[in-house]
Amino acid sequence: MTSSYGTSLSQGANSGSSESVRRLSLTERLALVYERLDELRPPKTAEEALQQLNSTLEEVEDEFSGVPKNPNPGLKFDGRMYPPRDDFINRDSDGGITAVTKGNIVQIWADGSMVIRQRITGEENYRRGWPPVEE
After folding, report:
1. Which burial class, exposed, middle or buried, applies to 123 when counting CB atoms under 10 A from its CB (0-12, 13-18, 19+)?
2. What is the total count of domains within the chain?
3. In 2, 37, 42, 45, which residue has its Cα 20 to 30 A from 11's Cα atom?
4. Backbone angles phi, psi at 52, to 5 degrees
5. pLDDT for 76
6. pTM of the predicted model as reported, rounded to 2 decimal places
7. Is residue 56 part of a domain?
């Protein structure tokens, strides 16, 4: 089976079930999160943008990670991506939000524009809405 971006999808089985579940690699799942975000109505606030990011990430992970959601995930990777933890989210006085995850920094402006960058390299992974591209 091939995904919309040309990569091979593996098949796996739900534990205790005869149904097949498509499992995607982490890279494929992340690309799908960004693709689905782009299909949503643009957010008008930073809070709305964060909610869209979190719910989209949860949906993709529920569908394609094959890993049950841990209600209290630790810092060790369990095969599933999780939204930013509340204690790693900073809400700015101007209405913007900065959230830090294990691998990324999510910067959301008050108008809902968003940039996601890799923590280690600073490389931009995703951009939605406007801020100007930084050269």
Report:
1. exposed
2. 1
3. 37
4. -65, -45
5. 86
6. 0.81
7. yes
**pLDDT value of position 131:** 60
DSSP collapsed to 3 states, the chain: CECCCCCECEEEECCCCCCEEEECCHHHHHHHHHHHHHHCCCCCCHHHHHHHHHHHHHHHHHHHCCCCCCCCCCCCCCCCCCCCCHHHEEECCCCCEEEECCCEEEEECCCCCEEEEECCCCCEEEEECCCCCCC
Q: Work out the average pLDDT over 7-34.
A: 67
Cβ-based neighbours of 25, under 8 Å, separated by 6 or more: 7
Q: How far apart are CA 13 and CA 25, in angstroms?
A: 15
Q: Give the per-residue pLDDT at 75.
A: 80
